[in-house]
Specification:
Bound molecules: L-tyrosinamide
Strand order of the largest sheet: 4-3-5
CATH architecture of the domain at 39-117: 2-Layer Sandwich
Number of helices: 3
CATH topology of the domain at 39-117: Ribosomal Protein L30, Chain: A
Helix content: 25-40%
Strand content: 15-25%
Largest sheet: 3 strands, antiparallel
Radius of gyration: 25 Å
Low-confidence stretches: 1-15
Order of helices and strands: EEEHHEHE
CATH superfamily of the domain at 39-117: Ribosomal protein L7/L12, C-terminal domain/Adaptor protein ClpS
Mean pLDDT: 85
Oligomer: single chain
Shape: elongated
Distance between the termini: 52 Å
CATH class of the domain at 39-117: Alpha Beta
Structural class: alpha+beta
Length: 120
């Protein structure tokens, strides 16, 4: 019969220090391995048909920008072909893309939006 080796529960970074048989605290130094999560930038793309006013409203509504900032971002997209509207965790970025594409489709505009990892 196969014998199982004893399972040692993993110790989290905030767990209590261990004591040896004499009661002395056993110190252990571990390298923290947690990396910050990958962030995603939401980009909007230029096209020849979507009205500027619609893009400004979308940027205000879904990216929480004021009128002036939204107008600057819209103009950057118009002139450069694309611009970052915001940077979010993966799920939030995907939701923003869905919201923009949904609003554009409902309004009958070909506005395109995508998310990509930062430093892509
Ligand atoms: N180029 C569009 C126009 O001249 C405006 C526009 C801006 C469209 C930004 C899309 O993501 C966009 N009406």
């Amino acid at each position: 019969m196969a014998t199982k080796s004893p399972q040692i529960p993993p110790r989290g970074p905030n767990s209590e220090p261990e004591h040896d048989s004499s009661g002395a605290v056993v110190m252990e130094r571990r390298t923290l391995k947690a990396k910050p999560p990958q962030m995603y930038q939401v980009l909007m793309l230029n096209d020849d048909y979507t009205p500027m006013e619609f893009v400004v409203v979308v940027i205000q509504e879904f990216f929480g920008k004021d009128l002036e900032t939204a107008t600057q971002i819209m103009l950057k997209i118009h002139l450069d072909g694309k611009a970052v509207c915001g940077v979010y965790s993966r799920d939030v970025a995907a939701t923003k893309v869905d919201q923009v594409l949904d609003a554009a489709a409902k309004a009958g505009h070909p506005l395109k939006c995508l998310s990509e990892p930062v430093d892509f």
